[in-house]
Design goal:
Umud Fragment, subunit A, 2 domains, 33% helix, 7 helices, four-stranded antiparallel β-sheet, alpha+beta
Amino acid sequence: MTEKDSKLHTDEGNDAPGTGDVVSEEETWKQAEELARELKRGLEKVPGRNASKSSDETYEVTRECAEESPSESVEVLPEKSSKRISDEVLEKAGNEPEKKKPQPGNGKATSGAATKKKKKRTAASYAISFFIKIAVTALVVFLLLTFVVGLYVNHSNSSYPMLKDGDLCLTYRLATLVKGDEIAYEKEGTIRFGRIVGTAGDVVDINDGSITVNGYGVFEDAVYPTTAEGAKITFPYKVPEEAVFVLNDYRSDPTDSRAYGAIPLSETKGKVILVLRRRGI
């Protein structure tokens, strides 16, 4: 240990040793910091030296230097204070205790594990989800076809020329039925199509190839004459409540209200709103 390292006070202006003033705290800090730097450089050259022990060693060296000083006026700092000073000096010098560095890839692995905590779906779960979607879709289609729309194929020419054999017809069940509407209805287990010529309370009469409703002639686009031949009802005919009187556009075919009477609204399947030509289906 050199004389420069052992002196903790300055007494260049005094002749007699030991007559100097007590070293100020600021100078003690400076000296301790200088000693810490030298100690750090020395410890770095020693292979296998643990840097975390440098704080304790710095304290011991600083205390030894203070005890070896010839000046009795040097104030030795308390143990805890010296140790705190050496620790803070080392921290300022950049010699902080080594922190355990995370191994490469640990962060990614941790984050990846967090994202992979979700349970993997099995083939059975996919199958169940698929069948649930199919069931829901089928239920929606069923409800639509039962209460909102109807899809039917015309298998006759009773409504020719508007509808032809094989046409695919879409009906709207919620429509309010009025005269002149082409509708689908069910009779004897068969879906049939016809045009409304009378509603509840109307009096329909067919005579001499013409049709009247409530005593007035009906203007329509029918190209075939309307006759009462083959009718199973007598004319004039009054349409009951909750029913409609329906005639085929092909008037030579009497399988309509002339044979069945008025068609109850409960047997109607809605107004035809779309026709897709599919001959021969």
